Please model this.
Amino acid sequence: MNAVSQKPRLIDRLPEVRGVYTENLALSRIVWFKVGGPAEVAFEPADEYDLRYFLAEKPKDVPVTVIGVGSNLLVRDGGVPGVVIRLGRAFSQISIEETTLTASAGALAINVARTAQRAGFAGLEFLSGIPGTIGGVLRMNAGAYHQETKDVVIRARAIDPAGVLNVLNCEAMGYSYRHSSVPQDWVFVRAELRLEPGDPDAIAARMAEIAEARTESQPVRTQTGGSTFRNPEGAKAWELIDQAGCRGLQIGGAQVSEQHCNFLINTGTATAADIETLGETVRERVLEHSGVSLQWEIQRIGIPAEGGADD
Model:
């Protein structure tokens, strides 16, 4: 009898790197929703050069997905095929020179805001209200409290699928509301942000106000993915959801937050399919009630579980 042929392991097809490969990494331990399947292979590069080498040398048919800390991410129950890149400690540096702050893409937005505050610089306080990394901030023109990323970006560095480093000024980022036109398969690795001299105590007070406002208005201590839908032009997503009667709506273990209608939460037993189905149900009800088609702000990646409800 002929031996049964087995599909070659993806990890065996990948280039030798100085960073770390991990097979079947449980992404549910990383993302804030605490749901979803594994990464077929996860890759944590040793540095920027290691990442460039990997992208240039990997097989062309291998898909790549980049994730940060998983604060605005829904991983489907079947997991993520291909390679999931995580920018770890090697990409968390923050430095200041004159009135420019340089942050690597893996640096937490709140740490960037705190670094600026301690050095006596204003302009980045809004980042303290964004739960994510600078890479994610750059990708989606993240914003909060009447300020957006485009207001402070001087330039950014991104690596394309061929491993080529590209330096982009703010105009080249193609920013619009919660969107950048930079290709999805480019990996941001660094940003330079504009600073303004300020009083450290006054900056700290503003950041404390932002933290208090988040705690009072958002379900920050739950398993959630942050704001679920983008605000339509001239309207607020949470108001449309509330008016459509979706506050507290529940499907399986997923629920529309009673505290803030634009947040979906995992009550403890949700699957990714529960959360995505709930989100789509909310979209349908809002469209029926107001004629507005809500657009997802949360990034959804991966594939459904075989035979699952999201198949």
About this structure: The mean pLDDT is 94.
